[in-house]
């Protein structure tokens, strides 16, 4: 029994000794348990003020950061710093970057410790607020404006407004439809749209601007701005070129007028790939005229090709073509002398007329006829060659056995007709000469004479 009492006494003494050795812990008397932090914050930001005191008061204490969870992407972005008699938990940019999509909540454990290294822990929650995208003002994504196309380079033609609730710095980008007009516009850092050139040089009645805005985190847009122009110019378009025409070789004066729309105050440029044939024509403003006599028979001058451009001083048209072909016109045969004469021997003869016949029409055919004064058919003209001749033995001094006598002159009244029905006439007076065409003859077949020596010879 005495042994049991001794054991309980020892246990009680031990408990008393244990209770006596337990020291009071320091205390975090105040702190902000929850803090918020915008993910786009780029400046040092205080999150929580931590007050730590010893127990009993009077001992030296310190506050330090124990852990940050999760470990990324910004584990090293937090620190405890002096702020008067207290400590402050602070966000320190530069050691990482907040990203709401990766981590939207950090749990930061801080410790309050006294000189005996007794400590107490608390957890501060830091909620990451996502960055808010900028907003267009007005918030519609479609707009339209009318602009005077007569502009000076650098002139502001409009402004796209945007706001950002986070106070982020905004930047703008600009696209232009069609892309060929991109060079004519730029957008400033404040959203002002500037004309880089005189907008009349665009040769358009409208363009579409597409504007996006970015705050460093979010891109919003595009905002569509339909821009229509007044006092604008457009590219002239030909309505009657890129074609071929045919003109007869006897054409004179105006042969063509180039038509463009719009046609106000246009200047025309005409070039050719056939300089020799183009010399037959003259051009003034939008008109093309015949300048010289055309000649189908000159083969190298039959076809002329020209190229036409029009400009209003700002807008130049496409290059258009016009091909001109000179066509044949049936021309009258030409006889060098319409009234001639010739001497030929009597008899049955054929001879060439004393003139020449020409026809400018290539490969033309001709038909010769006698159109009067030959009712008895004494003479002829060869229908194809035009050679003249007699159908009979034309005798101007008949022999004793040929009593028929013909006039010493005959008028060939000739007509030549080409295949197109055009004619020319001529008169040839043929003088038939008495040629040695009759043999001598005796009046009697036999003669008898008597003579003596006294007869005179």
TrEMBL record:
Keywords: Calcium, Membrane, Signal, Transmembrane, Transmembrane helix
A Gene Ontology BP annotation from the UniProt entry: homophilic cell adhesion via plasma membrane adhesion molecules
InterPro entries listed in its UniProt record: Cadherin-like_dom, Cadherin-like_sf
Keyword Signal on entry: yes
A molecular function GO annotation: calcium ion binding
One GO CC annotation: plasma membrane
Signal peptide (residue range): 1-21
Coiled-coil annotated residue ranges, if any: none
Residue ranges of every copy of the Cadherin domain listed in the record: 266-335, 355-442
Domain of life where this protein originates: Eukaryota
PANTHER family: FAT ATYPICAL CADHERIN-RELATED, PROTOCADHERIN FAT 4
Record protein name field: Cadherin domain-containing protein
Source species: Elysia crispata
């Amino acid at each position: 029994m005495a042994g049991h009492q001794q054991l309980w006494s020892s246990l009680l003494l031990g408990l008393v000794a244990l209770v006596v050795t337990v020291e009071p812990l320091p205390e975090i008397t105040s702190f902000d348990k929850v803090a918020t932090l915008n993910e786009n914050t780029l400046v040092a930001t205080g999150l929580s003020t931590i007050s730590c005191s010893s127990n009993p008061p009077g001992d030296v204490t310190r506050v330090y950061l124990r852990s940050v969870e999760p470990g990324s992407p910004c584990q090293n972005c937090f620190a405890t710093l002096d702020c008067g008699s207290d400590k402050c938990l602070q966000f320190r940019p530069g050691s990482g970057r907040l990203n709401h999509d990766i981590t939207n909540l950090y749990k930061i454990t801080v410790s309050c410790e006294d000189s005996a290294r007794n400590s107490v822990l608390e957890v501060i929650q830091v909620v990451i607020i996502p960055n808010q995208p900028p907003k267009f003002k007005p918030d519609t994504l479609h707009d339209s404006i009318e602009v005077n196309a007569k502009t000076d380079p650098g002139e502001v033609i409009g402004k796209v407004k945007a706001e950002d609730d986070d106070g982020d710095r905004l930047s703008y980008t600009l696209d232009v439809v069609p892309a060929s007009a991109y060079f004519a516009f730029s957008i400033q850092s404040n959203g002002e749209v500037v004309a880089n050139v005189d907008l009349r040089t665009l040769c358009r009645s409208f363009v579409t601007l597409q504007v996006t805005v970015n705050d460093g985190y979010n891109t919003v847009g595009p905002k569509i701005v339909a821009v229509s122009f007044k006092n604008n110019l457009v590219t002239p378009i030909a309505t009657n070129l890129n074609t071929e025409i045919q003109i007869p070789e006897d054409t004179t004066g105006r042969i063509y007028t180039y038509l463009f729309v719009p046609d106000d105050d246009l200047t025309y440029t005409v070039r050719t790939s056939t300089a020799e044939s183009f010399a037959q024509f003259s051009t003034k403003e939008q008109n093309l005229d015949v300048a010289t006599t055309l000649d189908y028979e000159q083969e190298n001058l039959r076809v002329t090709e020209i190229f036409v451009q029009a400009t209003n001083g700002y807008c130049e048209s496409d290059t258009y073509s016009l091909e001109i072909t000179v066509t044949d016109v049936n021309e009258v045969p030409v006889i060098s002398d319409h009234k001639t004469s010739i001497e030929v021997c009597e008899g049955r003869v054929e001879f060439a007329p004393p003139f020449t016949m020409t026809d400018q029409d290539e490969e033309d055919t001709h038909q010769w006829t006698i159109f009067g004064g030959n009712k008895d058919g004494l003479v002829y003209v060869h229908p194809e060659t035009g050679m003249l001749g007699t159908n009979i033995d034309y005798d101007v001094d008949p022999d004793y056995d040929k009593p028929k006598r013909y006039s010493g002159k005959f008028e060939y009244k000739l007509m030549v007709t080409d295949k197109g029905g055009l004619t020319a006439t001529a008169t040839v007076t043929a003088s038939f000469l008495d040629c040695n065409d009759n043999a001598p003859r005796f009046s009697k077949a036999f003669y008898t004479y008597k003579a003596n020596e006294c007869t005179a010879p």
